[in-house]
Amino acid sequence: MTNPHGKRRGTRYLFSKKFRKHGITPLSKYLTCYKRGELVDIKGDGAIQKGMPYKYYHGRTGRVYNVTKHALGVIVTKKHRGRIMPKKINVRVEHVKKSFCQKEFIERVKRNEAIKMRSKEEGTRLPMPKRQPVQPRKGHLVRTKGNEPQWLEPLPYSLFI
After folding, report:
1. CB neighbours of 53 closer than 8 A, spacing ≥ 6?
2. How far is CA 81 from the centre of its chain?
3. Among 79, 77, 75, which Cα is nearest to 88's?
4. Single pTM value for the model
């Protein structure tokens, strides 16, 4: 075939399973509880063809808006001709997993709330612990007493035979 136009065109390696991960899907995949509003990562499982997402959505993160017996409704953003459109897709639970993309953010919010509560109990004002970029190193004085400066220069070019 010169150029197939099917829905799964170009997915030979995209939907293939990893090395030594072939076989039946583990039960934990089916027993995971999803709730509305949670973030999920869409990852198509090539072993199960039912409810598989289109290849564009593979690797995308979306928000659950509907939960049914075997599938989830997920809202994913798609960029098309300069517009960012929310798309609603239905995907079976075998093709999604819970996303941990906001894990660090949620931990930081909890830590900040604990600091706020502690400062309120003590009656002191603590500055909010905001993330700071890496600051430049502190300046220091280099003494040359007994330590003469050395000139660094490249070696002159010569043919080494």
Report:
1. 42, 44, 89, 91, 95
2. 25
3. 75
4. 0.73
